[in-house]
Amino acid sequence: MKKILMVLAVFCFIAAPETFAQNKALLKAMKKEKKEKMKEYERENWKLLGSSRSLEVALLSHYDKLEALGEDGKEIVGIAPKCKSKNVGHQMAINNACITYSQQAGSSLKGRVVSDMAGDGTTTEAEFDHFYGAYERLVEKEIKGEMTESYSIIRDNGDGSFEVQSYFIVSESAASKARIRALENAMKESEVAQKHAEKIASFVRAGFEN
Fold first, then answer.
1. Over the range 79-107, which residues count as b (16 or more CB within 10 Å of their CB) and which as e?
2. In terms of Cα–Cα distance, which of 72, 91, 105 is closest to 182?
3. What is the pLDDT of residue 128?
4. pLDDT of 116 higher than 80
5. What is the distance between the alpha carbons of residues 22 and 197, in angstroms, rounded to a whole number?
6. Are 130 and 106 contacting, i.e. CB atoms less than 8 angstroms apart?
7. pTM exceeds 0.85, yes or no
8. Distance CA 30, CA 32 (A)
9. pLDDT for 9
10. Which residues on adjacent β-strands are paired with residue 79?
11. In 10 A of CB 117, how many CB atoms?
């Protein structure tokens, strides 16, 4: 037991400087990224929407949340390029963020299905189109409860309209449950998915769990 503890101690002693250096480099890169992002916002006349905080504080808080989640954290941006009302633009940006996430999820699912079914010989890719569409629609509906709005920004387009961008943070481990619910419901709507239900469920769930 003592030998095992000694080996672990030596390993930690050796690994610690490398880990510290990596963390230091990452923090330095993130600090630089935040600084550049803030300069970009100032240059392009972006203002914080719906908050009494400063844009700089909102941005710092956003990066802190992402850093806390690590690889499990995902940033989603929703954009409303042209709107007359700030409130309507904000809602459009939220909807756009959900659509963006659902399309990314749909592309990921399609990649898994196509690669796995390539040698099937009995099912064409076209037969899955309805399945993909249903899955994206259901992910868009399910993911709203898993997306946490971090901050939103707005700028005047100069023609009486506004552009709004909303930034969200998603925990992928939590969001995977929403995607699985969407997958199960989409499979109920698709005959071809039901035909390959067990196979699809197995490799898609494995992808969610990784």
1. ebeebeeeeebbbbbbebbbbbbbeebbe
2. 105
3. 73
4. no
5. 43
6. no
7. no
8. 5
9. 45
10. 165
11. 19
Contacts (Cβ under 8 Å, ≥6 apart) of 18: none
Residues in the chain: 210
CB atoms within 10 A of CB 204: 20
Alpha-carbon torsion angle 188, 185, 76, 92, nearest 10: 90
The percent of residues above 90 in pLDDT, for the chain, comes to 33
Residue in 83, 67, 68 with CA at minimum distance from that of residue 166:
83
Nearest alpha carbon to residue 49 among 78, 16, 17:
78
* Residues 141-177: tens digit of each pLDDT: 888 888 999 999 999 999 999 999 999 999 988 888 8
Tell which residue, 150, 137, 173, 153, has the closest CA to residue 75.
150
Q: What is the band of 124 on the pLDDT scale with cuts at 50, 70, 90?
A: low
Q: Are 102 and 174 in contact (CB under 8 A)?
A: no
Q: Where are the alpha helices (DSSP H) in the chain?
A: 2-43, 55-69, 86-117, 129-143, 172-189, 191-195, 197-209
> Taking every pair of C-alpha atoms in the chain, what is the biggest distance, in angstroms?
74
Q: How many CB atoms lie within 10 A of CB 120?
A: 10
